[in-house]
Amino acid sequence: MKENAHSSQYLLMNKDVCILHFSCTHNEFGEVLFAEEEWLVQYRPIGYHGLQDFLEQRRAPKHRAHIRELLEQCGCGDMEGFLRVTHALSLNDTFWVKGTESPLNWKEVSLYRNEFNEVISRAAFDGTLTMQILCMAPVFDNNRSLFPELDKEQLSRPEWYVEKCRPRLGRDFIVNAQGLLTDAIRSDLKNLQGFSFHSHSDIEIPARRLRLLSKIVNRQIDRILQE
Question: Is residue 102 within 8 Å of 117, Cβ to Cβ?
Fold first, then answer.
């Protein structure tokens, strides 16, 4: 593997399998640049169109002021800080990042095994920055599935917004979900019918908003289960 004394060296992992050695440098404008050094496997992550794009897409959006402030307070002011703090983890897949000398393994970092920090997750959702920052929340959908950008009136009529959302693969979330249904998943969805959100004990969320969000979830479940 090539080494560069002026760059940081990282590994892109799939669980405990090293799949790519890459480097991170900063240009004269302070921008973070990533470069593929050596692929260690033949496959690529689904939808992979380049390392820079792949890593950027795993980062929470910064267009809202409270998200930008949250990232900065957690040491994620730039992409390299984001990698060091979050390991670019996501609930959508099993890829993650670590330094080439790091002893960390999948069991120690997996979001499927380790507890979430609910306080920070709610802070990112509501924009509540009055509590002390403990650590970075995991990247899943950046809470976009809970429609934080919609006000109360818009949330009561969410169909127009849901319909305009498009998945990264395919053209329709419901069609994708129906195509992936198994007997076990169908059974799990049926058990979820009637699901309802409840307010966190530390952060009060308006009951009406929780009712509307619960309604959306149940509507989507019913649509997926339609034959």
Answer: no
